[in-house]
Amino acid sequence: MFNHPIIDALFVLSVVIIWFMLSYQFILCVLGWLYSHRAERERRELAARPLELPRVSLLIPAHNEEVVLDQTLAAMTALRYPEGRLEIIVINDASTDRTGEIADRWAEEDARIRVLHLSAAERAGGKAAALNRAMRKARFEAIAIYDADNAPEPEALLHLARQLAAHPELGAVIGTFRCLNRKKNLLTRLINIEGVSYQWIVQAGRWMLMEVCSLPGTNLIIRRSAFEAVGGWDAGALTEDAELSIQIYEAGYKIKFVPYAVTWEQEPEKLSTWFRQRTRWARGNNYLVAKHLPRLHSIRPRRLGLELLYALGMYYVCFAAIVLSDLVFVLGLFHLVRITVLGPFWEIWMLALALFVAEVTLALSREEGEDSLSNILLSAVSYFTYCQMWIAVVVKAFFDDFVFRKARTWAKTERFVMAPRAAKSEITACGVTKS
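^ that's the sequence the OP posted. Answer follows.
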């Protein structure tokens, strides 16, 4: 059995890093729980205030979305927003299916809908480039973004716009996204737990701690002046939303998380689809860190620098520590290595699992029906399975970007048909609408 002081030191370091990240996440989790109560009070206060809501141009980028676009536009036209203050622009991004035809039909039936048809030559640059082109056609002072598979709840946009009207320091406001097909299979159940946890821990917790949030790809509204101040979306970024977040903060604005503005979206039902999507996210994070890390000392406000360090730490330092501790644990089971450092490491492992499950359970408790026994048990299972799958994603993204130098191309997430009745039952099952 092999042992060496370096192995001992690396193992102890990995344990320290893992516990540091878990402890930070737990602080964010508690702050997110506290923010949920503050947000509910603010929701009632804003609903009672007479506010002049901004006129909104709602953009929907759509490339080959014929299987979902009808349901999406049905949800958009059902949004409760003052008459004459909303336009809906469907960006037919060089689709080769019936996307353009469906969008044109809806435009004929509803005067609020316009369609922007982009040619194949104009499609270069993916979602970011499509949004930049649509911005030139948008007429109003606030810009809302929804993905083509989204079904926002009727007052989702209204909640976002109220925040923008009440707080001039905000450059953007983001809502919550929920998993429409969360009951489909084991993967979608795990994705649902991940999504709820991320939003109530990272988004809500960071806003409560230092008023920092990151734009998601959907269910958001941006002040046009903030958008124009930063020059639009970076077409070279695979996660254009995260890149735009940094620019908005540097321009002197803030981004606020509004958890009661809810949209429902499809999530991958196959592991291969999930892996491609998450790899794109990880490569987008690589781009973000590589672009901004060299100027970490000069970036303002300073809390943005902390966020970049957090992204670097979560994707590489923490995952490297997890891989190392897993490797030592497995080799130890086969008596190939031995840790000579004395300590209650088995108890530390169990406490880390307990802390992880406690964090997820507290986050799940903020969404009605999600803190079920089955979800709590699944969160424990995900610690050893789903979370470990992210390591493969990060490794793949690292080699794609820094070893093979592969071109960054937009990988569209696969869509699928959901019967309207089934989709409606999925949305109402949680009873999350509190407006």
